[in-house]
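quick one
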Amino acid sequence: MSNMLDTDRATALDAARVAFRAELLDAGLLIGSTVPGIYGRSGAFEAIISGLDAVLGEMARPLAATVLRFPPVYPRVDFERTDYIASFPDLTGIVSSFDRGDREHRELLSARATGEAWDGWLDPTDVVLTNAICHPLYATLEGRLPVGGSVFDLSGYGFRREPSSDPMRLQSFRMREFVFVGAPDDAQEYRDSWLDIAIETLASLGLPVSAVPANDPFFGRAGKMLISNQLRENLKVEITVPLYGDLHEGTAIASANCQRDHLTAPFDIRTSEGALAHGACVAFGMERTALALLRTHGMDVAGWPGEVRALLGL
Ligand code: AMP
Ligand code: ZN
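structure w/ zinc ion:
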């Protein structure tokens, strides 16, 4: 009986997500494509993202973070120094291109002309799609950090191969991240204090946020152990917003993470005293937060509460 109810609930949740997606497409806020999770964004949608960017910049002003921007692809050699392919092979994207001669190009074109697969003539290149926008940063920090560690303000597109009809689950989406790298205790304290500030900031936009212990979707059987470690040691906390009433407990719009030495060890990043540094980050999903605002306050921004519009400059 309870299984039946769970199935009904899952079906109703799917339907609610598809209906929300249709509302977003009808309103012209997102522009659909033939591939699930790949959308264009309208000017009205981008205005929300820009407002949000400004709010987050203001929130982080006391950090005096070093601003860095990386493109949405980064060197494969750096990717290979992390264990992302072990943990998240199913989310990974690698760029392929054509690097052969005229003869092979003619073969490719004749295969294509007859409707056959032509991508076999492409080869993986030395660039991968950025999955988490802090990955390209860590590769640049090899060596010793300044006294007190370093704080960075990052923003950019990430790719995760998770096609879905849920408009909150995109394959290509923006994140804004504030990353601390330094002494282990400082990293933990950074994560905890910025989690509170992030919650306060998102709540100020009228979002009914909660903080929930969470885990990353580590792949396969080996991943199960990584998931239980992450939960047991409270390394990841998500800030969630309920979007579908009782059907779902909430979708993550941001996360606060203790990376420990997970990304500092591969690049041998050390504190000023020479100990292995730890990393911590607070990551905001830009599209997800904009979508949560639309779901909470309505599709028409003109009807949003005045104080929310004022904060976002809308
Ligand atoms: P994570 O590094 O997984 O904690 O992701 C940081 C934030 O990015 C999450 O809290 C979400 O807001 C956002 N995010 C993660 N995956 C997706 C996705 N597939 N589509 C849209 N936003 C996402
Ligand atoms: Zn990060």
